[in-house]
């Protein structure tokens, strides 16, 4: 899969948050690091590239974000050590840990560790206003639906959800930016987004055309939560200018991950920096409002990296030894 590396240089003069580099135990630290994100136009890329820059600037090492296929591919790349860090969603993480990843069937990706909670990924549908589609039940038989990059959270779960809700569709994959353009040009009927809010591609669409951001009925939400590892979620009306009221959907939690062999001291400093500076994280992306320590309990799948677990335990968030790699 073609990837693009987006690197951020780090300079000592920009150290404004972390402790001085000389005060840190740097044994075994790499000269640089890379974070696996997802396609451009999605929240993972905006969040991951901003976070990588923040870490690089404050810890004095070069770092950046790599465009990938999303959570499934990030699990594989981090497991093998091709990337030190990545972003993933709990559903794909579980499937990868159990050896059920479509990228490597039978391979248990168990060298991936959690480092901190990110945000919930809502599953929502967007269509052009002039399409007349205002609900999931309005999606016409045989409609072409864009599900994001192949292997992404949306591509893994949203087609199954649509089938569960009785929607008959043609499947289309691509980056969120590309699918947004295809929707605007009338080449596809619907985009089924799964990304932290606000989704950059949706915000861009709103500027260029009139769209309907479609939620779920009570019955639809119950059917999906009964059949998938998700919970109900409400997209506040203030998230998008196209929403006149809150929109009920479903969501899945995301966590930042590390290869379990990354030095404990480095992961400790990264966790400390991230968890103790939420205002900075929110300035990177509004979805980071929930990137806060108390949400560590949302990880029910991955073992914790020892460096991350040390910070949480030192600050009153108990992670038992049995859950640490």
TrEMBL record:
Gene3D superfamilies: Periplasmic binding protein-like II. It comes from the Bacteria. Residues 1-23 form the signal peptide. Keywords: Receptor, Signal. InterPro entries: TRAP_TAXI (IPR011852). Coiled coil: none annotated. This is TRAP transporter solute receptor, TAXI family. It comes from Marinobacter subterrani. The lineage of its organism: Bacteria, Pseudomonadati, Pseudomonadota, Gammaproteobacteria, Pseudomonadales.
């Amino acid at each position: 899969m073609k990837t693009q590396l987006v690197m951020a240089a780090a300079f000592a003069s920009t150290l404004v948050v972390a402790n001085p580099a000389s005060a840190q135990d740097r044994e075994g630290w790499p000269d640089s690091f890379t974070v696996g994100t997802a396609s451009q136009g999605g929240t993972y890329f905006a969040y991951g590239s901003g976070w990588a820059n923040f870490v690089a600037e404050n810890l004095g090492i070069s770092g950046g974000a790599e465009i990938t296929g999303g959570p499934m591919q990030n699990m594989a790349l981090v497991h093998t050590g091709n990337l030190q860090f990545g972003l993933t969603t709990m559903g794909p993480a579980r499937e990868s840990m159990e050896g059920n990843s479509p990228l490597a069937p039978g391979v248990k990706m168990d060298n991936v560790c959690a480092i901190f909670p990110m945000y919930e990924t809502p599953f929502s549908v967007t269509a052009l206003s002039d399409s007349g589609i205002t609900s999931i039940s309005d999606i016409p038989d045989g409609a072409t639906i864009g599900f994001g990059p192949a292997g992404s959270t949306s591509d893994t779960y949203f087609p199954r959800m649509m089938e569960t809700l009785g929607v008959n569709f043609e499947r289309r994959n691509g980056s969120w930016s590309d699918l947004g353009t295809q929707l605007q040009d009338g080449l596809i009927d619907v985009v089924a987004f799964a990304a932290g809010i606000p989704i950059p591609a949706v915000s861009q669409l709103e500027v260029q055309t009139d769209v309907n951001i479609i939620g779920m009925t009570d019955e639809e939400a119950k059917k999906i939560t009964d059949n998938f590892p998700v919970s109900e979620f409400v997209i506040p009306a203030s998230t998008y200018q196209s929403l006149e009221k809150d929109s009920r959907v479903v969501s899945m939690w995301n966590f930042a991950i590390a290869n379990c062999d990354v030095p404990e001291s480095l992961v400790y400093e990264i966790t400390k920096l991230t968890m103790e500076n939420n205002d900075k994280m929110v300035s990177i992306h509004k979805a980071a409002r929930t990137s806060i320590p108390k949400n560590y309990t949302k990880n029910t799948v991955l073992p914790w990296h020892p460096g991350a677990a040390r910070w949480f335990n030192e600050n009153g968030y108990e992670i038992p030894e049995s859950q640490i790699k």
